[in-house]
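Quick start: what a row looks like.
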Amino acid sequence: MTKKCYGAVELGGTKFTTLIAKDTRTILKKKVFPTLNPKDSLQDIVAFFKDEIPDCETKLEAIGVGSFGPLDLNPDSKTFGFITSTPKQGWEFFNIKGEIEKALDVNVFLETDVNAAAVGEFYLYPVNRIRNLAYITIGTGIGAGIITNGKLIHGLVHPEFGHISIPHDIRKDPFRGVCPYHRDCFEGLASGPAMTARWNLSPDDLPVNHMGWELEGEYIAHALANLIYTVSPEIIILGGDVMHHRHLFPIIHKKARALLNKYIKSRSLEENISEYIVPPRLKDDSGILGALSMAVYETESRD
């Protein structure tokens, strides 16, 4: 009897994680690498998966990949599976899906890193209770993975929630923003690099009582209010390096409730907002375990 195994990759801008597992709960091997140029990083990925793994048949069933983007996820496109207009040097229009498939002769299921994280968190909740979920990462960049009626949202491309417009009072906050495309979009005002550029201190070095946290919480609350009005998720999960600072959650809860002003009649918002806007249950493993879930469930659905 053959023993099925699955692979997963979470490809970030500075590092990437790889793992091999028998199922979504039985991890056999895991390793973190620095993200280099595409050629060298691909060599690291291939070498990891070609190593002999106990309890696995020689060929993986599939590999799930959650990658930084933007990505082309349109199966009818000539650049399907490519990282497209990324600012990361050397990776622009790199065929991440195709190159891994060619090197390892295995099906690769590709999603954005934040979509993979949304998938990872989604499978923690009973499907009959939570069908609509939003995962937002706030770190070097800002992005959102949105699941509606149990399925990830795809459309023209994929949601670019980090680039929505939010109110920016330049009298209170004269900072111009860091987004090279829009200056003061959500990512331009509230990402980790935006905080560092505004205060000349990284979020890790910003004191808990610094006014910057109130401003950060306000920008995030504005973005979440827009999300609640338009998508109406049943739960919002906030991950990423900035959200490692847990004292930010009560600020967001307070400001989001004030902005919504009881317009949305829901106990989740009026009484239990601390259970509605929450940190990831999987902590920093949402992305890699989501990528693994993609490989397992997509393969099973095709069998």
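That is the whole record. Residues 211-230 form the longest helix (20 residues). Strands lie at 6-11, 15-21, 27-34, 63-67, 108-112, 133-138, 142-148, 151-152, 235-239, 277-278.
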